[in-house]
Design goal:
Layout lengths: L11 E3 L7 H13 L10 E9 L4 E5 L12 H12 L5 E10 L12 H14 L4 E5 L5 E4 L2 H4 L10
Parallel strand pairs: 4-5
Antiparallel strand pairs: 1-6, 2-3, 2-4, 5-6
Helix pairs in contact: 2-3
Length: 161
C-alpha cells in the first residue's frame, strides 16, 4: 500500500528591508555588508551571512574560496562554526544570508546550500530552539523562515545515529 503525504512549508515574503523588525534589519544589513569581505576570486559570487545571538551581539561570516576546490567554505558555515566555537552558551536567534556578484551593488536571491542547512539544523537542535532565517529574495524582497525545519524538513539528527 502506498500512502501519499503532502509537505507544507510556511514562510513570509517581506516587501523590503524597512518592513522588518529592527533586529532583523540589523542582521540583514550586516550580512549585506559582509559581502565586501568575501574571498571569492574564482566565482566572483560574494556571500555574506550574519547572526544575532541571545545576548544581542551580532556576528558576520563570508564565503572563503580556495584554488584547491572544494577546500573553501560557505559564509553560513564560517559564521556558525566560529560563533559555535566562541559562544557555545549563547542562543542563535536570527541568521541572514545575502549574495551579490563582484562589481555589482544589487543583491541576488540567496539560500543556504544543503550542507549549510544541515549545519544550521545541528545548531538549532543543539540549542533546542528555532533559528529564524532571513534570505535575500528577488527585487529587494526578503524571505523569512521561522525555523530551519521548514527549509530542511527531513534533517538528519543525533536520534538517527
Amino acid at each position: 500500500m502506498t500512502e501519499k503525504v503532502q509537505l507544507h512549508i510556511t514562510y513570509d515574503v517581506v516587501s523590503s528591508l524597512t518592513e522588518l523588525p529592527e533586529q532583523e534589519q540589523q542582521v540583514m544589513l550586516l550580512a549585506q555588508q559582509a559581502t565586501s569581505n568575501a574571498y571569492a576570486p574564482y566565482s566572483n559570487y560574494l556571500v555574506g551571512a550574519a547572526l544575532a545571538l541571545s545576548d544581542g551581539s551580532l556576528h558576520q561570516g563570508t564565503n572563503q574560496e580556495n584554488a584547491a576546490y572544494p577546500s573553501g567554505l560557505c559564509a553560513e558555515r564560517t559564521l556558525l562554526f566560529g560563533v559555535g566555537s566562541n559562544h557555545p552558551d549563547k542562543t542563535m536567534e536570527v541568521l541572514a544570508v545575502t549574495v551579490r556578484r563582484r562589481h555589482e551593488s544589487h543583491y541576488l536571491p540567496a539560500c543556504p546550500c544543503g550542507a549549510c542547512r544541515q549545519v544550521i539544523a545541528e545548531y538549532q537542535n543543539r540549542q533546542g530552539s528555532p533559528i529564524k532565517l532571513l534570505m535575500q529574495g528577488q527585487d529587494g524582497k526578503i524571505i523569512r523562515i521561522q525555523s530551519v525545519a521548514d527549509l530542511l524538513p527531513f534533517m538528519f539528527t543525533k536520534d538517527q545515529l
